[in-house]
């Protein structure tokens, strides 16, 4: 039997309203494995993107979310691992960039990764992905520059020291 609805609502309110740094890492790690997809998504976002926490346990929890049944949670985990330059996210990112629909988080993740393997999939987005939105065009251009040069553009918030291991 799952957690009561009131408890789930309370967790979501906390995740949405508090600064990520206010949460204990172990609590966020636990919520990342919660039965409720929205809780997993918000916990993954908070730990993965809103903090600079980086450890074997954090990376493993994020890698576990790469196969989450919820697409939003998978996307948040992918960006978080890309920020940490964790190669476990590289193949899923390439697959996502080659998909029929590509969201901004995938292009952002490519920029954080800053790897030459991502240039071709990013180039294939030109003309259909970035043609109607100035923000998308800039994001794609910045991600391409990052992958060509290996340097994360200043438009990306790089909070975590590169660890290519």
Task: Please provide a written account of the structure.
The chain has 165 residues and is mostly helical. The protein has 2 domains: 8-84, Leucine-rich Repeat Variant, CATH 1.25.10; 102-154, no CATH class. Helix content is 58%, strand content 0%. The chain starts with a helix and ends in a 16-residue tail after the last helix. It comes from Parasphingopyxis marina. InterPro entries: ARM-like, ARM-type_fold. Pfam families: HEAT_2. This is HEAT repeat domain-containing protein.
Give the number of helices. Answer: 9
Instruction: Just give the CATH class of the largest domain.
Output: Mainly Alpha
What is the overall pLDDT average?
88
- The computed structural class is mainly alpha
Would you give the CATH topology of the largest domain? Leucine-rich Repeat Variant
Protein name: HEAT repeat domain-containing protein
InterPro entries: ARM-like, ARM-type_fold
Organism: Parasphingopyxis marina
Pfam families: HEAT_2
How do the helices and strands line up, and which of them pair or pack?
Layout: H1 5-17, H2 25-32, H3 37-49, H4 56-64, H5 71-83, H6 90-97, H7 104-113, H8 119-123, H9 134-149
Helix pairs in contact: 1-3, 2-3, 3-5, 4-5, 5-7, 6-7, 7-9
